[in-house]
Amino acid sequence: MATASGSSADDLEVTTKGDYAYITRRGNGAAVLSELAKGSLSTSATYTNDLAALGDSGVASAWVDTAGIARLLPSLVGSPASTTSAAPLGRVAMALRFDADHVELAGVTRGGQTRPVTAPSTGGTATLPADTMVALQVSGLGDGLQQAWPQLEKSIPGGTDQLKKLQDQLGVTLPGDLVTLLGSSTTVSMPKQDLSSLDSELPAVGAKITTTDAGGADALVTRLSTSLGADGVVKHEVAGD
Fold it and tell me: What is the pLDDT of residues 35-56, one digit of tens each?
């Protein structure tokens, strides 16, 4: 039996209940059964609501109460409890899903300072070219940035003066333009290509953004390309609204 460093099998005990065997440090079995008698995770409204927001649980799923872990961590490592609230950390739910032509790892965060974001209603990533090698889709980046901006603005080196200078250089207004550009759904993908040539060439990368102001986002990409000296390097177009 594998045991933690510095312990032996004699330090452990096995307690059975129903179809399960619980391996604990000796003397803790009864306490574990007592906690189990108070209810299981499947009866927790918080847990079930988080998984409902995630959608299809796929072939494997995970749920983490990061705020709860943060509260327990000081006692686990033997340090004084922090006076900082862990609530902003919230919770994370993830699912690994397989489809006929792709693998998808989907996730949602809930319960923190930002508004919970639900999984895309499409049930998968945006429509992508057949030669796509890898893609990442994130929902709610624009809203998340809008809500987090007051704290981010305080952390910018140089304060508001430096921020104004940056906006003038790039020809943008923050956070509004960036919120528009990130939109409600952002998908970044890379087609199949010879990655050994990256020392001499830029990789081919594409992005598809769903936003409430597609025209404004397109104009913003033009301004940024000009400001950064990337005219002709970045190709972009608007489809629909």
Answer: 888 888 888 899 999 999 888 8
DSSP 215: H
> H or E stretch including 135?
strand 132-139
* 54 touches 70 (CB < 8 A): no
Residues 6+ apart with CB under 8 A from 217: 180, 181, 183, 209, 211, 238
**Which residues, at least 6 apart from 219, have a Cβ–Cβ distance to it below 8 Å?**
none
114 φ, ψ to 5°?
A: -85, 155
Global pTM reads 0.50
The residue ranges of the chain whose pLDDT is under 50 are: 1-3, 5, 81-88, 114-123
Residue 156 · residue 163 · CB < 8 Å: yes
Q: What is the DSSP string of 13-81?
A: EEEEETTEEEEEETT-HHHHHHHHTT--GGG-HHHHHHHHHH---BSEEEEE-HHHHHHHHHHHHT-PP
In whole angstroms, give the CA distance from residue 125 to residue 192.
Answer: 17
Q: Take residue 66 and report the two structure tokens written for it.
A: 């990061």
3-state secondary structure of 91: strand
Q: CA-to-CA distance for 208 and 200, rounded, in angstroms?
A: 26
